[in-house]
């Protein structure tokens, strides 16, 4: 079959995506010349010389498996844009002498490219040059910066020398320069300081250990980053000399900086907002660092040799986030408590730090406090004065045996992580944490009960993750005593369910995937209801979210005109931590189901069966998954105030899906619970 001829077509604008250009077509117009995977038999290259007269040409060569010699491009005087990205076999660029109007050159991921032609220095109108991920690029001798706005050399991993800078940059042209991942690049030229409009320079993962002193002349530079990929050398930053007036972000993380590597006059960076120094090896910081009045973010994490902070740290009046985790500081400066703007403080894994300042409670703006893995034996009482605190991580405190008794004063606390501690009990005031949503008590092996009033944490929607049983079988994920204690206490959440118009039940979530063994009891006593002792039915389920539950209390006999008592309960789950693989818990109180006015003198013990009708969550298009019932798992237990002399439980049976109501697409899954057979 003969190939179809190629016809010129008019296109008003360059295509945004490769798929917009038909394969095998040569698209020619006043503003566009595009070649998309041309078949060898058509040889569209032969047509290029005849197109030189077009006034505004854009050349797109998308994802070409091979590129023939590009000598034909030498006389394209009107060519503005060349896109050769992903041309994996391209080894050399064409001669650019015949392209004086070239503005955009994209050679991204030309992974065989070895050389950029020296004539590129004559392209004075070049605005953007992308050579990122040209992993075999060795020779890139010149670049003209008169019109340049972006030079991207990311991951040119064998490029050893930065190109020689030609031309004088125009006023008002903002420049971005990226050499991230040029792992053999050892230096930048002194002429870099002449790029007075440079706003961003990213030189991470290079061998640059001595930035040129001229870099401080870049008074429009806003973001500057270095990171050594060879820890065999030490990094030294030049004296600021009152330069870098616009610098807002300085990232020198993992640069192997030792004492003397930071400039003593670093405090003169008057516009600096973000300073990243993590993973370095200095033992002291320059004293002038406390003069950074605009600093909002300071990262000193993982500086293993850092043993002290500046005593006058209080002068960092704008500081909002402070990372000191993983350091070897033995104490914190007392003045840290005067950082009135501080919102985030991370002191995790500071193994030599044994205490917090006694007046830590003065941090009136603090919202997040991370203290994981420290060796504190006590917490200062003033920690309870952190009225704005929303997140507190006290996990893996092996030496901490108790919490401050007035921890309940943390009125804004939403997340409390007590994982892996040795508490035997929690302070009663913990029930006063009215904003608490998530409480983690996992791996607290000595904890056997919860405070009696924890149920008054009205916003607590995340069920604590309880300790593993200390047996070798690891058969259960929870401590049964804790599980029982929890539901004893949260039963108070539904104490007024009878007077509620919404009849809404709280749902608690646990980050586990199996139904706890505590719910696996079988059989139901004949006289299951014990006045002033029975609290309700505790239900556990996993899988898809459930919208509401309809409970039917069914009589043992239909004699005397007895009928079922039925109520529908909405399920309230506002947890931000709920996922399909989690398990969910709720308590159905008898007070919300039992209607004494319609009992006709009967007692709950005359009702021997409870049927629970779960209605699946309906998403925004009004549908539920067809396999809703297949994926759900359920467990139920009767809850008593005191069950020490009772042998209780429920036998359960799952039914297939009921027929859906014609006016609704909701899907129902039935659970029905029967009394034990006579004689059992």
Describe the structure.
It is a single chain. By secondary structure, the chain is mostly beta strands. It has four domains: 1-173; 184-347, Alpha-Beta Horseshoe (Leucine-rich repeat, LRR (right-handed beta-alpha superhelix)); 354-494, Ribonuclease Inhibitor (Leucine-rich repeat, LRR (right-handed beta-alpha superhelix)), CATH 3.80.10; 496-674, no CATH class. It is 2% helix and 22% strand. The chain is built from two helices and 30 strands. It has a 19-stranded mixed sheet, with no helix packed on it. The radius of gyration is 35 Å and the shape is elongated. Residues 1-57, 61-72, 465-477, 495-502, 617-630, 647-671 and 673-680 have low confidence and may be disordered.
Summarize the structure.
This protein is mainly beta. The chain is built from two helices and 30 strands.
Helix proportion:
under 10%
Radius of gyration: 35 Å
Mean pLDDT: 76
Q: Terminal Cα separation, in Å?
A: 85 Å
Total number of domains: 4
Beta-strand percent range: 15-25%
The biggest beta sheet is recorded as: 19 strands, mixed
- Total beta strands: 30
Overall spatial form: elongated
Q: Can you count the helices? A: 2
Structural class: mainly beta
Low-pLDDT regions: 1-57, 61-72, 465-477, 495-502, 617-630, 647-671, 673-680
